[in-house]
Structures are given as C-alpha cells and as structure tokens.
C-alpha cells in the first residue's frame, strides 16, 4: 500500500457500544439514498425513488466513444458499441434489487459503513441484451469458471486502490434472466444507475449488478478481487475467510401507516380500521407467506399475498387490515420462501452487516 493511502482510507470497524453515527457515515448516507417507504406502493419504482449505492464517484461516460470489451477465455474477443448492443434482440425483466448491507445500522454492534436502515431496495424494469447471447457470440472456452465484470469507476477501499470489479460463477452468468441492461423503466440508464450499461443479476444482492460496465473477462480460476475475496463475505471475526454473499434472503416491508411526525418519523393513526400494505421478496425461492403482527412480534397472522403476475424476480404486494385502538403499538411483518428461509428476530449479525433480514418493525401511536 502507498503509505499516503493509510491516511485517507479507513479500515472496516465496529462502532463502540454508545457510539452514534459518525460524520463519515453521514456523508455516505447523504450520497447514497434509500427508497422512501411510501414508494413501496408502486409496482415499479420511479427512478429517482429507487435506492442508490455508489462506492466511489459516478463516472461521466460519453456513449459515442464508450465500448464494452469481451475478453479472456473466449474463442473471439469482442468490442461492442452501444449501437451494437441495441441492435441485438432485447428483453425486459422486472427486478427487485436490494443492497447486501440493508438493515446494517440496526445491528448491535453496528458495522461502520453505509448506514442503511431498511430502505435499500427498489424495483425497476431493466431492458437489455441477455448476457448469455453475448458470451455465446464470443464463444466460452472449456475450462472457464467465472466471468469478471469491471466498471469505469475507480477508488480506494481499506487501502486497496481498485476499479469496481466483481466475479460471477459461469453457471450463474449463463442464466436466462441475467442482462446487460441499457434501459431502466423504458429510458436510458440514469447516470447514477450505471449509464450507459450495467449488469443485472436477478435474485442477487446489489453488489453483483456492476454499473458503468466497460469489460467482461471470462477466466479459468475463481476471481480473487477485493469485492469478492475481501468485501462481500459474511464473517463473525475479521480473521476468518467467511462465506460469499450471493442471493437475496426473504424480506417483507410495511408502508408505514397513517401520517408521520417530521423530526422523529414516528407514525400516527386514528382508531378503527387501518389498511396495512407493503411488499415482500426473496431472491432464493418463490415466497410462500407473509405474516403480520400488531403486538410487536408476539403473535403473527397471515396477510394476503398477491400473485407474482409472471414477475418472478420482482417484489409482491401484500395486505392486511388492523383494528387500531388508542395507545402505543408496534407493527411487524415477515416473509418466508419455498426453501424455508424466513426472517429472524435477531441472530443475523456479521461483521460487514450483510444479508441481515431482521423482521421489519414499525412503532405507531394511535390517537384516542
Ligand atoms: N461499478 C459499480 N457497480 C456497482 C456499485 C459500484 O459502486 N460501482 N455498487 C454496487 C452496489 S453495492 C449496489 S447495492 C448496487 C446499487 O445499484 P443502484 O444504485 O442502481 O440501486 O450497485 C452495485 N454496482
Ligand atoms: Mo450494496
């Protein structure tokens, strides 16, 4: 490491017992925003309301001279322009994307990084070229094991200077639903969401969906880059190798009912029937149930879960009714999927604060 980098780049650490959010975490939270939870009402999230996570700076790429290189263990290397990609058969997939660090700021001790509460999620209709069709055009060599995706953004993380890069196992890269996307909700990608081209890996946490793509390299050994080997792994202690973060665990979120207090965001409702609604998703397996509690998670009852409408990779709406009575209440909601994954009350802690799908709780005051 350049000795100067030690002064600008922070190691991963856990917050102290009583340590509040730091100025560095506030700076991250002011750049990288969540989905306002009332926007869970939209089937497809309007782009400005979709969550945003950018490790370094948003690149400013000129589509006229931008090219995508396809190299490595392939029969023929390719160099594709945006027009070349647009000329190929396109597909559109509705995808719920969630940051692997969603829920991190609720953990104790708190891993110090982007301090998400529960809003690091959004659903978009991504249009582009199936990755497989481009890999087949290049011709993948026997012996290839992974595909490495490189973005145009550059930065430093824990002293390691790097381009944002992720490796994806070849079997996952060749799945039908994996896209090289040039449009979001029918319009060119916004700069912050990866213009002109990003990878979309339906069902996987956000870190896999590499933005501002410039190169795709087919490799014959597992990729050891920072974002795979160091960053996105679940570990209980700093010195263990940990497990890679991959597919999204089930989560249900509630549109906070009633109306909010400005400063505290605490919810206020009036007595009587309150319609509860929200969204639920899993990138592992189809959902089997969503359950709601109005007594802080002591008892749960089933909510109505809408069908997926053919959108396997998108969230599903759920709803339930609640007879609110004067006083303080805590609502809670949880989802489970066909693989038997559900949402824990606690116990999902790891040093990076990844794949933490704790039950969503919303305190509500009911007026008399
Ligand atoms: N090139 C590049 N791709 C990236 C990132 C990044 O910093 N650089 N962030 C990743 C992470 S951690 C997430 S959660 C998603 C966020 O995608 P969004 O901002 O479009 O919601 O992008 C992923 N792709
Ligand atoms: Mo993320």
Automatic annotation (TrEMBL):
Q: Which cofactor does it need?
A: Mo-molybdopterin
Q: Which Gene3D superfamilies match?
A: 2.60.40.650, Oxidoreductase, molybdopterin-binding domain (3.90.420.10)
Q: Which residues cross the membrane?
A: none
Q: Which domain of life is it from?
A: Bacteria
Keyword presence, Transcription regulation:
no
Q: What is this protein called?
A: Sulfite oxidase
Q: Which residues form the Moybdenum cofactor oxidoreductase dimerisation domain?
A: 272-364
